[in-house]
Amino acid sequence: MSSISNTPESPTARPRVAVVYGSASDAQTMSKAGATLSRFGVAHEEAVLSAHRAPRTLADWVEGLRGRGIQVVIAGAGLAAALPGTVAALTTLPVIGVPISGGALDGMDSMLAIAQMPPGVAVATVGLNNATNAAVLAVQILALSDQELAGKLVTYKDDFERAAADGLARVAAASPAGASA
Amino acid sequence: MSSISNTPESPTARPRVAVVYGSASDAQTMSKAGATLSRFGVAHEEAVLSAHRAPRTLADWVEGLRGRGIQVVIAGAGLAAALPGTVAALTTLPVIGVPISGGALDGMDSMLAIAQMPPGVAVATVGLNNATNAAVLAVQILALSDQELAGKLVTYKDDFERAAADGLARVAAASPAGASA
Amino acid sequence: MSSISNTPESPTARPRVAVVYGSASDAQTMSKAGATLSRFGVAHEEAVLSAHRAPRTLADWVEGLRGRGIQVVIAGAGLAAALPGTVAALTTLPVIGVPISGGALDGMDSMLAIAQMPPGVAVATVGLNNATNAAVLAVQILALSDQELAGKLVTYKDDFERAAADGLARVAAASPAGASA
Amino acid sequence: MSSISNTPESPTARPRVAVVYGSASDAQTMSKAGATLSRFGVAHEEAVLSAHRAPRTLADWVEGLRGRGIQVVIAGAGLAAALPGTVAALTTLPVIGVPISGGALDGMDSMLAIAQMPPGVAVATVGLNNATNAAVLAVQILALSDQELAGKLVTYKDDFERAAADGLARVAAASPAGASA
Amino acid sequence: MSSISNTPESPTARPRVAVVYGSASDAQTMSKAGATLSRFGVAHEEAVLSAHRAPRTLADWVEGLRGRGIQVVIAGAGLAAALPGTVAALTTLPVIGVPISGGALDGMDSMLAIAQMPPGVAVATVGLNNATNAAVLAVQILALSDQELAGKLVTYKDDFERAAADGLARVAAASPAGASA
Amino acid sequence: MSSISNTPESPTARPRVAVVYGSASDAQTMSKAGATLSRFGVAHEEAVLSAHRAPRTLADWVEGLRGRGIQVVIAGAGLAAALPGTVAALTTLPVIGVPISGGALDGMDSMLAIAQMPPGVAVATVGLNNATNAAVLAVQILALSDQELAGKLVTYKDDFERAAADGLARVAAASPAGASA
Amino acid sequence: MSSISNTPESPTARPRVAVVYGSASDAQTMSKAGATLSRFGVAHEEAVLSAHRAPRTLADWVEGLRGRGIQVVIAGAGLAAALPGTVAALTTLPVIGVPISGGALDGMDSMLAIAQMPPGVAVATVGLNNATNAAVLAVQILALSDQELAGKLVTYKDDFERAAADGLARVAAASPAGASA
Amino acid sequence: MSSISNTPESPTARPRVAVVYGSASDAQTMSKAGATLSRFGVAHEEAVLSAHRAPRTLADWVEGLRGRGIQVVIAGAGLAAALPGTVAALTTLPVIGVPISGGALDGMDSMLAIAQMPPGVAVATVGLNNATNAAVLAVQILALSDQELAGKLVTYKDDFERAAADGLARVAAASPAGASA
């Protein structure tokens, strides 16, 4: 479907992105972040850590991020989604928040809890459950100083245009008169 | 069910309406637009084009609309539903927007994204998933300079009244005393 | 500000658009529709009629629209904004609905009441209080069979592009280095 | 479950309440109104009439209500739920509105469309899908001049208290210590 | 403005409607109920009683309603608007609830708290702050067994139609061509 | 999963917490309160009582709470969730409210109905359906004067931290390079 | 207005309640908590600490609470209101959260961010801006082991009933016929 | 207030961030972005460009960004806020979106329109009107390859902690007993 092929990389590639989420039940939604990062050949680490249930373990984990070479954090959470903001409060690395819609309020609660930060402590919020876009954003950030990644992003976008144009051409070929009624 | 019969037309009838939507997953919802246009014998073309994923292919497609004889565009989209507004920004043809409720917020996000345009660039928004009404609106617009279509619209509305009156009559016949308790 | 000058027209020009709203308190919001129609030289008539308070007077008024040469109706209403839908139920002319935000719920109630019509009876809903866009939409519809109006619409859109480009040029000229910090 | 037994009545009892709704798909929800009216021995008539699709048939039907002896109207509708307000606009009988949650917005659209009427034309709105309460309200209104109904209402309420007290007694009997841990 | 003149009545007319609200700050909003009742010559009594702050005083007051000849209760409340439902729980008289928008959530909280009652205990909810409609509803209920009131209601509605028709006539007279542009 | 084992206790332990909810259909949601109280060895009693359907039985039940040794009340309700506020109005014991999402509005109606109390009569509201947290809150309150409970709470929280840290350790052990791509 | 007089106390009374909020702009709203605590003679301390801007200073402050004799924490916050949840994550004391409506979303964002905690870490949420009720709740909790406070609470509630009954009596005295029309 | 002093820089410093918004009326809100960037000594350029009114001028402007050395785009918009998404569709640079609350729906419409992007085209959304955080995020991104900026960010965060700790100390010094009642 895409002309970007997953880049082979050595198993010991150092992770540049950390993906963290508040509950094991968020794993499936958040797996799209990992899948997209892998598609771009960006190594990442993953952790399950609740800001409310394990605040001290989380603080220690954030403390160690920079030392392990992490440059961007992707944090997903539902309900009173404190995780992204708590991580952002504890680091100066860019933090991308993924609101997850598992609660009774369709995720609106988590989107507001993640986006509405006080001036000075920012979270880059993406759409509900849209872990793919969190990864794309992380790749865009890393690509600012990584020419190879920058090139892959261009290909990634061109693929979308090409697929759309191909679709139009197929429809035009199928309906000689170009119309249905 | 209706006294309008689909008008037979030559397979090469030139489309007057273009139906476009952002993702193949919107096809089923949007198919009601095509079905209703066909019922009125209005030829149309159809395309799948995302404003965000394929902006250049979309711009080219909009550029060609008037040359192909299109008079009205029906654009359906979900989430941050940019498609109708993007098309409206690029053409002076009337654009009808169909908000689609596939997202986690019940479609409220797409309805607002479609309706709340800045002064000067308008989109005619219909109800959530209501592609039928987008087609009815397109027919009403075309009927202003097409007497045959205007006549079909009158019949279309009369059918609703007749069906309702028939329903009342059936109920009255079934319950001689006109009441149940 | 714009290169479209209001077209002089004879005082007896026959109105092609009817603007109706439910309460005298909506007059100021709805006056933007009249102002925009005038800018395009489109004659219109105006009426204050509540669907809930004067249903019979409204029905008579709708009955007479086509005879008076009206082609498009713009209907504004707030709260349980029944006016646009009631007019749409009684005519086959295209009806454009303007939700008005005068109620305690920020106009969300009127937007939903106007947009969420049943299949078969459509209202073209614009943004909250956006009577300007209702008029633009009416002009776009009339322009399908009025070459002069079609030309004015192209100019209207070009003016927006030109104003934007001029703004960029002014900024670039003012900041020789193109930057501020 | 209740000590009110359905009152036998002659099949020709004249209906005092009319139940109307906009679409056959509302029949199941609205059937609770009929069931509750029957439980109180109040005869009613029922009709399916859309305010938007069959406005003239509806107006005729409303015209005839008083002549047929109807004293209260229960009107259910979903989406841009115009039916209750349209009926209220055409009669001075009390109209009770039942918002129905069949749309994509959980029924919030229909609740607002029914409740937010302009001053002077009122609809008595009950909870979402709560046709039972529409019937209870109708019975309470009729009971003001019907001693037998008034008595049944007292019994109806007492039954709730008795059932609650019986429940407490059963629990107390089952857990001798009155506690669980 | 209206052809209904306030009916003179003896100062000792027995109140048929009770108007109650939860806080003195609701008095201005609720005064529209009293004004409308007076316009129809319906005597009423008024009380300030909070369901949450004075539950026992409220229960005593409800207990005495029927004895004092009250037939309908109008109850207004904001926030977690328990008053209408609490009154409805304690009486079989019809209770009309007025949600008041004084809280931080624009009154949506009070509308839901009033409307969403459990099956069996009903409140007739009107629009936000719309105490006028609560009174109209009360009058419609009383008019079922009061011919004089029924006549006044017909006049009240006719006045709306007449005012609307007069408005149309004035506009037509003012613009000989019937149009503006 | 946890190092707190349920404390064995005599079957006649006197309940310190009362759990009450408005409808039998709330039993499953509310059972998490009982389960959590039991986990901490806190005896409780349980009742099904609707504020709207059985106001007098409820008032009697609240009257008896203090005499039976109850110190905290947990009240769950959906829709126009009056139960927690009604209990709070009738007692000076702390009342914890659990909004239940069984209605058509996702529970937002019950959350607002429970939380938005007037100044002076408070309900401690927890998240939607979160009866577990209502019990945790009750335990925290009781623990202020119960050293054993206070100790269990510390263990309860430590368990969360330990589980999180163990999870991190497992992941680190499994991915020697600490990364995936 | 009330028969509870503020209890004189020595200036060195040890605070039992801590009031904390995220921004100096919350001080006025939160001052109602202090005023109500003082009315009951409950000493408290106050701090301004943002969970997002000063997470480490906040953690230290929470660490010291129990040692200073604090038994209940009242935490107020607006926007992505993390403060109450962050405090609850770091202590086993009961935490009462006050959502503050200073943001663009009327405080709904802060209410959801405070209430929707994960199971196991609870916050007792009160209504928007309702710091008074946070204090009442704190007093109710402390009163479980403080007879004097318990007595004051009974008086506090009785005052509400008495004021309501007095109001009714005044109205009855003023309108000999008990009615107005 | 802060220990970061604005870095003097040559007037010809090349802008690394572009700030764009849809309407001149957004200038004041968006000026916080420029102010914050300046505080960190990051040069930026600014433009007013509507995605809907000037789509072609916007496309040209986006085309030129990379050539002018721009690394991050901050895009603010209200209503059907298409600008951030449109820019993101046309570039692979990271785009930060600022929803602006100028519309009738409190900005919720713009937040959803900006955040709810389709997978593959991401916008980093910050809180309503929070242009400050957009700038902080831009600085965090640039700091990944700019040691001086990274150092300034650490100071920026430390200032918040220091200010909070100083505030606590001042309060403690002012109230010797540490309490008020």
UniProtKB/TrEMBL annotation, chains A, B, C, D, E, F, G, H:
GO terms for biological process: 'de novo' IMP biosynthetic process. One of its GO terms (molecular function) is 5-(carboxyamino)imidazole ribonucleotide mutase activity. Residues 15-164 form the PurE domain. Keywords: Isomerase, Purine biosynthesis. Its EC number is 5.4.99.18. Substrate binds at S23, D26, R53. Pathway: Purine metabolism; IMP biosynthesis via de novo pathway; 5-amino-1-(5-phospho-D-ribosyl)imidazole-4-carboxylate from 5-amino-1-(5-phospho-D-ribosyl)imidazole (N5-CAIR route): step 2/2. The keyword Isomerase applies. PANTHER family: PHOSPHORIBOSYLAMINOIMIDAZOLE CARBOXYLASE, PHOSPHORIBOSYLAMINOIMIDAZOLE CARBOXYLASE CATALYTIC SUBUNIT. Belongs to the AIR carboxylase family. Class I subfamily. This is N5-carboxyaminoimidazole ribonucleotide mutase. It comes from Pseudofrankia asymbiotica. The gene is purE.
